């Protein structure tokens, strides 16, 4: 399959979406927080702090959507909104200890399911093959964000 051939690339993309959709749906069904909320928590865990605009851009949602998500996460005690000391118009969101704990538990639930399935259904060689694909998937995603 030559990925430069539009027909081959189209089929590969279709196959990948058809595969990833049920995996993503299963992970979402297992989690107790929405994927948007988990993505906000993950971003803050990596970046330490972010503005609302930063979060909206990072997870690919509107400013209105991020406003609702951050408000709900604040009410749950998972993040705090702190004023920027040098610019009164700006504020930063930071992860609380409770938010970090919740993110850890959400990730453990979904990765635990996937770990179990991999362990039950794949041989050692298949696990190595799957591991070799992960950097390629990272390249696809990082290329899509540019």
TrEMBL record:
This is HTH marR-type domain-containing protein. InterPro entries: HTH-type_Bedaq_tolerance, HTH_MarR-typ, WH-like_DNA-bd_sf, WH_DNA-bd_sf. Pfam families: MarR_2. It comes from the Bacteria. Residues 1-142 form the HTH marR-type domain. PROSITE patterns: HTH_MARR_2. SUPFAM superfamilies: Winged helix' DNA-binding domain.
